[in-house]
Design a protein that fits this description.
heterotrimer, A alpha/beta (about 425), B alpha/beta (about 350), C alpha/beta (about 190), A: alpha/beta, 6-stranded mixed β-sheet, 16 strands, about 20% strand, C: about 190 residues
């Protein structure tokens, strides 16, 4: 049913339709509207049977999900940024134990300095945790991916993270076609666990595994992610025929087939990128985009096939691997190993800095002219950076970087968008 | 302590006092079958079965067996356990073996209470709250790293019985100090070097009282020296719903430098000295204490443990022993551990 | 595509205003997008929200840099925050104030624009009359409909009723209608001038 509604609200309603039996809630911006929405649905009796647990930390949230999932219940939680880090140990535990938990990550930057706005640092920091990572471009896709996520997770016995840009998507009102209860019930069968804590058939879950067997057990997580490379597109295809619209999958090209320059990105920025590409195509520039939907597993073959014909690839990413550069770019490069082409990594949008059409226009023009550095930072104020580096070099007690810069800027935040 | 039963010959008029009821010496053979411990029964679940790799004389293995067999009996075998990382988890599940005969999950060090809460929530959602949940861990996993999750479980009154097996240090990693390590104890990072008395005074958490402060339905302390008492408390806990906490004192021969054969004796002595008050509480208030039978000076308890050897020997520290005695005396006063002398000696 | 930027302070319903515009556009069968530019919950801090609507699906997610219309809910932001950034000479400006542009120090600024598209309206007072409080966001949306004609008043009112059921909704609707009439009248005067 078509509605104009907030992304978070739509996700909450859709998750409720997926019939989770245990929902864990610990608040963190910008996911709060999702867990609040679910609380209301449980209280109103719309989502039942469901135990809504208000836990004392994100670590507890994921731990409660682990217990619930191991006891055979469909379990769900949501977090972002610091919260995702706080549950890092539990993330690895959940994937190692093969528990099909689904979690929304409302992508947000990681401090210090503390910042509540959108970038991909959080999910990227957990890319090796064994969780699947699916990225939504729009709120419609965010809604759709949650339905698919439960299917994929339970089929593979692996946990899945649905990533949606914090504030940019979570707090945006847009037109969304919300699935109906019967649609979701047809698509998502009841949870049939591979392992379950059941007095009628007791088993031990979580034993210590030494050098003699660890590697094999660990490899199984990787093997399952390799299976996911088939399961994800299969589920997406089934979703499309059941719900009548494409969403999810591994990758999606936009005017990329014949493009000399292809821009690779994840998440909501692709909307602005596509608008820019259309404008440049009008002017005869051969440019296209490649959306990566599934970051884990990383679709090496599909990315290679999609980019093989390009002369240059620009990876635009919202996270920084401090000390080396790009994260997505490194994965893309792996997909393209052996192929000759120009590769550019552009770090953009950190801490919620807006990625504007005009900025992208300038950036792509530079890329097409091969005037970009291999690693560049979009809209970086180099003056401020230099000033602070000088301050550090000059005196021993130069002060905290963030505060120094903010003092230089003047008024904090007001109106700067 | 028991009254002799009537026989066909008529009433006896002599009272027999059994001090070691429940040990292999007396209670189980001379008691009515119904009064025997679960451990004395042929049909006990043997939830933690043999073959595990615990040290000789491990108090925790004993405690876990006592607690879970009693809990299994109370729940008619419908029980799930969530276990923190630690000695119990490690020695009970050496891959590919497991000595657990109930559904059992180990997740992380600090989340056993939360995992248990999750299991309980799932069972309730599925309409199966006839299946009961136990969370368990050592003192490190309970009092330190698991503290936040435990407090959350208490605060929400989740339907879980959480049991802490307290051997007063992080044993599995090599005997490091925890928030439950008593003052003056030597551990790997509280060695009595120079003037340092081992673990310092004025630190540590009184976990049972913290549990009580949450106002949960049931809190109790117990030791492995008194299985009747421990089992009764487990039974009492299992008869209730909501968050319940039992803190069990379990000697660790290896970590304490004690003889494996002294495990039960040390557990008895810690109670008889007053250093470890054995009591029960409901909804935040103490409802009963297990009285000291023979008041014992702390020194008798301390000497058999090499973790306290620095208090004796070449450079003795009677001043520290005195401070420990003061702690014991204070417990006796505050909990009324000697009673007022007029009552019958009660309980087992 | 029609792009709106709304300025105000936390607690004044700036975000809600943008959302209501998007719902109004949706009710007219158009595609619409509304989102805020703010952070932690805090009363009194400057807040900006954006709304775009169009007949085709909207893909871009960047903030509205070149608004077709600006709504300023709190005049104390004038001269404090760069409110007018990106407003073109054909842009609309609806300012919540009982004072005139000249009195607000905007006389010279206003000369760069089309006079019938710049308006100060006492939306706070209108709101106070109908709601008992100077919560001007709904009133200003009525004024917006009149000033720009970009959305129908009926769509705006339907969106308000949907969000605020019952008496509160009707009071906000009345405020919006009142503001709509006042703005219509003012524009009429300007056009005739």
């Amino acid at each position: 049913m078509l509605r104009q509604t907030e992304g978070s609200a739509a996700v909450a309603e859709t998750v409720a339709l997926c019939r989770p039996e245990v929902v864990c809630a610990y608040p963190i911006s910008p996911q709060t509207h999702i867990v609040e929405g679910l609380a209301d649905l449980v209280r109103a009796g719309t989502l039942e049977p469901c135990e809504y647990m208000m836990v004392e930390s994100e670590f507890a949230a994921m731990s409660v999900c682990i217990g619930a999932s191991a006891a055979g219940a469909r379990a769900y939680t949501a977090t972002a940024s610091q919260g995702l880090l706080y549950m890092a140990e539990a993330l690895y535990n959940a994937s190692g134990l093969g528990l099909p938990i689904v979690m929304t990550v409302a992508n947000r930057a990681i401090g210090a300095p503390i910042n509540i706005w959108n970038d991909h640092s959080d999910a990227m920091s957990q890319r090796d945790s064994g969780w699947l990572q699916l990225y939504a471009e729009t709120n419609q896709e965010a809604v759709d991916l949650h339905v698919q996520a439960f299917r994929i997770a339970e089929q593979l016995s692996l946990p899945v993270m649905v990533c949606m840009d914090g504030f940019v998507l979570t707090h945006a009102y847009e037109r969304i076609d919300l699935p109906t209860r019967s649609q979701v019930d047809s698509f998502l069968p009841p949870f049939e666990p591979r392992q379950v804590l059941d007095p009628a058939d007791p088993m031990t879950i979580g034993a210590m595994v030494g050098p003699e067997a660890f590697a094999e057990v660990k490899y199984l997580a990787h093997a399952k992610q390799m299976q996911a490379l088939d399961v994800i597109p299969a589920v997406a295809e089934e979703f499309e025929s059941a719900f009548g619209r494409p969403s999810g999958g591994l990758i999606r090209g936009y005017r990329a087939d014949d493009a000399e320059t292809v821009v690779v990105a994840l998440g909501s920025v692709l909307g602005t990128i596509e608008d820019t590409i259309d404008a440049m195509r009008e002017e005869g520039v051969s440019i296209g985009a490649l959306a990566i939907k599934s970051f884990r597993p990383f679709p090496l073959e599909e990315v290679r096939t999609a980019l093989a014909g390009a002369k240059r690839v620009v990876v635009l990413e919202k996270a920084l691997a401090v000390g080396v550069g790009g994260i997505v770019a490194a994965n893309v490069r792996m997909a393209l190993s052996g192929l000759q082409m120009h590769g550019y990594t552009v770090i953009a949008g950190l801490g919620g800095r807006a990625i504007t059409g005009p900025s992208l226009r300038r950036l792509f023009a530079e890329a097409v002219a091969d005037r970009l550095e291999p690693l560049s930072f979009l809209d970086m104020d180099w003056g401020r950076v230099e000033a602070e580096l000088e301050r550090m070099a000059d005196s021993g007690r130069s002060g905290p970087h963030a505060e120094n810069m903010l003092r230089e800027i003047g008024i904090v935040a007001g109106g700067s968008h | 302590m028991t009254e002799p039963t009537e026989t066909e010959a008529g009433k006896r008029d002599q009272r027999v006092r059994f001090y070691q009821v429940g040990s292999h010496v007396v209670g189980n053979r001379l008691l009515d079958p119904e009064q025997r411990t679960v451990q004395a029964r042929m049909d006990r679940s043997n939830t933690l079965t043999s073959g595990h790799r615990a040290c000789r004389g491990c108090g925790e293995a004993l405690g876990a067996r006592y607690v879970l067999d009693a809990a299994m009996r109370a729940s008619e075998g419908k029980l799930v356990a969530a276990n923190a990382t630690g000695c119990l988890e490690v020695f009970s599940t050496p891959f590919p073996e497991s000595s657990w005969q109930l559904p059992w999950i180990h997740s992380l060090f600090g989340n056993a209470p939360a995992v248990a809460s999750g299991v309980a929530a799932a069972l309730r959602a599925k309409g199966r709250d006839d299946i009961r949940v136990v969370g368990q861990g050592g003192d490190g996993g309970t009092v330190d790293i698991g503290f936040g999750c435990l407090s959350g479980m208490f605060e929400r009154n989740d339907d879980v019985l959480y049991v802490c097996y307290d051997n007063e240090a992080y044993m599995n990693t090599g005997v490091q100090r925890s928030g439950a390590t008593p003052p003056a104890a030597r551990t790997a990072n509280t060695k009595p070097i120079g003037e340092h008395p081992g673990n310092v005074f004025g630190q540590g958490k009184d976990m049972p009282r913290i549990a009580m402060a949450h106002g949960i339905p049931y809190v109790a302390t117990a030791t492995v020296a008194e299985p009747h008492d421990l089992e009764r408390k487990v039974e009492a806990a299992m008869s209730l719903r909501g968050a319940r906490y039992i803190h069990v004192f379990v000697p660790c021969p290896l970590g304490w430098g004690a003889e494996p054969r002294d495990t039960i004796k040390l557990a008895r002595l810690v109670k008889e000295t007053g250093l470890f008050p054995v009591f029960e509480a409901s909804d935040g208030e103490v409802t009963g204490v297990s009285r000291i039978r023979r008041r014992t000076p702390v020194e008798e308890y301390l000497r058999p443990q090499r973790r306290y050897a620095h208090l004796f020997g070449e450079h003795p520290r009677p001043d520290i022993v005195e401070r420990l005695q003061a702690i014991a005396d204070r417990n006796i006063r505050e909990y009324g551990l000697l009673g007022d002398g007029s009552e019958e000696e009660a309980g087992w | 595509m029609f792009e709106v930027r709304i300025h105000g302070r936390g607690g004044q319903g700036v975000v809600t205003a943008a959302e209501l515009l998007s719902v109004a556009a949706f009710d007219e069968g158009r595609h619409a997008q509304a989102f805020p530019s703010f952070g932690s919950e805090r009363m009194g801090a400057p807040v900006v929200s954006f709304c775009r609507f169009a007949d085709a699906p909207i893909r871009t997610r960047e903030p509205v840099a070149e608004p077709d219309a600006l709504i300023v809910q709190d005049p104390t932001l004038l001269h404090q925050v760069d409110l007018f950034n990106g407003l073109g000479p054909d842009g609309y400006l609806l300012l919540n104030s009982s004072r005139r542009f000249e009195e607000l120090g905007l006389g010279e600024f206003a000369t760069g624009f089309r006079p019938e598209r710049l308006l100060a309206v006492p939306a706070g007072e209108i709101a106070r009359r109908h709601l008992g409080r100077p919560l001007a966001n709904a009133a200003l949306l009525g004024g917006f409909a009149a000033l720009t004609g970009a959305l129908k008043l009926s769509s705006v009112l339907a969106a308000i009723r949907e969000r605020f059921p019952g008496r509160s909704g009707e009071a906000n609707v009345a405020a919006a209608e009142d503001c709509f009439s006042q703005v219509e009248e003012s524009i009429g005067r300007v056009s005739r001038a």
